[in-house]
User: Fold this.
Amino acid sequence: MPAKKFMRHCHAKFFFIVCAFAFAIHGCAGFPEKTKITAVAPAEEPPFIMGAQKPFSKEKSRAVTDCFQQQVGPTDILSHHIRSMDKISKSPFIYGNTVTLLRDGPATLASMKEAIRNARDHIHLEIFIFRDDEVGRPLADLLIEKQAQGVQVRLIYDGFGSRKTPKQFFERMRTAGIALYEFNPFCLLDVTGKWKPHNRDHRKIIVVDGKTAFTGGINFYHVYAKSPDAASSGDDEETLFWRDTQIKIQGPAVAEFQKLFVETWIQGKKENIMLQPNLFPRLDEKGNTLIRIISSSPEQRIPHIYAAYLSAILHARKSIYISQAYFIPNTDLLDALSHAVQKGVDVQIIVPGESDFWMPVYAGQAYYSRLLKSGVRLHEMKSAVLHSKTIVIDGVWSMVGSSNMDPLSFLHITEANAVILSTAFAKKMEDMFKEDLSKSKEIFLKQWQQRPWKNRFLEKIARIFDYWL
Assistant:
């Protein structure tokens, strides 16, 4: 990324003041010891798998993982990692789902709108950015139309992420009958110390009729209106195409997304909707994909999404392919990636060349030399803003969601990711990764060591604040 973006993103100065203020008042949470994440259950214990209506027996659970093991060959993902996450997250793998991989804004928005148009009872949306623009306005119109048809619409939007959206935009929806909850309203002038600017709801969740769910990295924002085939001009994130990933889920796992939404709604609105009819309909099997829903929040002693990343990387045996918008690994993640290469694992990471916020990119670049020296292959996406948050390991284990790979997302922000256990889905993820590689440029150590001094200076500045990025 050109150093001139330092000037273009002057709003970052304000962000740092807020972060420093938050640090002074609230201190900082730390990462748990690695041993608390890597400790596993006895080897003879199979993973806990939930069926559409009841849990699988131990024998059936073992048969499912054995079948995967035969398909993919040696990997500790299907044994040690899964059992570790059973203990940490308490969220089981759920069998019987279909997962559709949605690439970029136009395809995702079209699929979401189709599901919303077909809603019959309720629509739940939890989003970080909801703008009054060419993407947000048509969606708001559609939600108002469904509310008028008798479909109850509930919307959670983040106060900081949507701070640029006029209040009238949301008031119009409220007047139409849509129930709204603004998560942690932006309040810089709060003198009580109760406002936590770093505590954000970064999730991107839609649940329709309790039967269909969407999650990933896509916000309701005009940058997602661009087609991947459209030519981009300039080097500004507002004019470039945004590369992102979303998934559509149908099957029993949808209830887990519904629970996340309802819990946040109850906590914020003080309105207990848990027992309202039709929120949790009977969900029969729609396919044969296993899904584990992993959420994170500041209250977790062991951050679940961080634990999933670290444990999965440590137990990889063949391949690790990561696409990350904000890649700021801590020491344990750096060590895990380096150790994977030493074991012969093919570790490749696609990182952004352009971004909507320069500071996290430079903070991540401060670690590139160490990664490259260890044998990790880094690729910088060109002519697009990489906003995707995905990982696929050993051709069987994938994760897609809203969480960035940085301390802020792991420790302070409310996030939601889906872990998908499926060789067929992993193949689609790997194919998508290869296509992104074709639009990226590999970074080589010798070349990286010759980068301009201004870049090195900005990396040092950014690294000071990397805990809050």
Q: What stands out?
A: Residues 1-27 have pLDDT under 50 and may be disordered. The chain has two domains: 15-95+289-468, 99-269. Residues 15-95+289-468 form a domain with the Endonuclease; Chain A fold (CATH 3.30.870.10).
